[in-house]
Amino acid sequence: EIADAAEKLLPAPQGRLSGRKVVITAGPTHEPVDPVRFVGNRSSGKQGYAIAAACRNEGADVTLISGPVSLPAPSGCDVIHVQTAREMMAATEQALPADVFIACAAVADYRPAVETPHKVKKERGGLTAIDLIENPDILATISQLDVGRPQLVVGFAAETDDVLGHAETKRARKKCDWIVANDVSPGTPSMGGDKNEVTIITGDDDESLPMMAKDMLGAHLARRIADKLDQG
Amino acid sequence: EIADAAEKLLPAPQGRLSGRKVVITAGPTHEPVDPVRFVGNRSSGKQGYAIAAACRNEGADVTLISGPVSLPAPSGCDVIHVQTAREMMAATEQALPADVFIACAAVADYRPAVETPHKVKKERGGLTAIDLIENPDILATISQLDVGRPQLVVGFAAETDDVLGHAETKRARKKCDWIVANDVSPGTPSMGGDKNEVTIITGDDDESLPMMAKDMLGAHLARRIADKLDQG
Question: Above 90 in pLDDT, residue B208?
Fold first, then answer.
């Protein structure tokens, strides 16, 4: 921790993202039903943490807003821990302005309409259903900011069928600049594993990448982001 | 892993539980809504893993049936990984017969009535509610086995209000021998932390323990179990 604190005091390493601020969300969100139950998403956070580390390695000032995961904080990044989509939304707004926003988290689209302050007991009638309401849409909100929109907004689309079609539709609907599409069908190694196979959809030069380590994909994405910012 | 495999081949250490078989469940269960969403419980698995390690240290043959957690397998224990309550039930039945069954897992009482094989899309109408059905009750089932019931069945009661009252009721309803009651209200260190404060309810010599490390509580419980088995 001392090394980490010292690292933050040092000038950022010279790199292609030196002087740039990057905000990244990672991991799942957990939406409470009561003090012991929640609705969650499967996400290890590994891809988002790898992108944060890669951007930092390129010299960026990185804020990583993380849902509940079991990963060590990437060295040199500011890490903000949150549980719910609403907390992640608030932390993101607070972390702006930034040059780049990367929405890698698997944010829960819905949360329980009611959060019971005590544990719901089975023998008191229990739970027959969890009523849901929509969560704020972090990617769409940041993509459509009138004031202070990051120059580059990158979303992720984890899909199980018609992956590219859904991803392209999501990019248009949310109005982000790029979307990184990956197949998370059961049996693919993307979820929880150390590898990922994605297509980066940019609208002009889509790139289908082979299966690679999440660290490698993070480094590749950091370079592509630097290329884009260099173009202005 | 080689050291671990070697350890399993060695005769069990001489201890007060030597020659005894102990089956322990630990961690949460995750009940799928679709390939990316689930309903889960907050449980780190630390207390169950600590009890498994302590029983092994006393010489027991330990099978640890674990929900999704981020903990290293305790050395010398057989660990079976499961996701859902139904998988945990099946693994428990398969691990019997045993002298002792300790139900430390935070098993989901309910699961989604329907598991959708593809990701439910928000823009296709989405989810307005998750209908729930009851899961099998592992503790009650094992406590009430006509044939092959373990000599000692220990449950856990994580409660947020009237902790001892609810725990005593749970012990009577499920027909386990002992129940370990703890307060998991927000703000207590039990959930996710390294300490726990419990009352062991046995029906004749209840014991309220001070706050202690989960490892220490595991060792204490292993000694009390050995005392009980020694009494026959």
Answer: yes
Give the HSE-up count for residue A72: Cα atoms under 13 Å, Cβ half-sphere: 6
At residue A172, the 3 state secondary structure works out as helix
Burial category of A195 from C-beta neighbours within 10 Å (exposed 0-12, middle 13-18, buried 19 and up) = middle
A contacts of B118 (beta carbons < 8 Å): 160-161
A41 is catalytic: yes
pLDDT at B120: 78
Contacts of B30 in chain A (CB under 8 A): 40
The per-residue pLDDT for B188 is 77
Q: Does B37 contact A108 at a Cβ distance shorter than 8 Å?
A: yes
Q: According to the model, what pLDDT value does residue B160 have?
A: 82
pLDDT at B123: 63
Closest CA to B37 of B128, B104, B139, B120: B120
DSSP A228: H
Q: Which of A109, A121, A160 sits opposite B35 (nearest CB)?
A: A160
Instruction: Indicate the Cα dihedral angle A119, A120, A123, A128, nearest 10°.
Output: -160
A41 vs B: CB within 8 A: yes
- Interface check for B38 against chain A (CB to CB < 8 A): the answer is yes
| ipTM score | 0.84
Is B119–A159 a contact, with Cβ atoms under 8 angstroms apart? yes
Chain B: closest CA distance from residue A184 (Å): 8
Domain ranges of chain B: 2-231
Does the domain spanning B2-231 belong to CATH 3.90.25.10? no
Measured in degrees and rounded to the nearest 5, phi and psi for residue A48 equal -65, -40
A140-182 pLDDT, tens digit each: 999 999 999 999 999 999 888 888 999 999 999 999 999 999 8
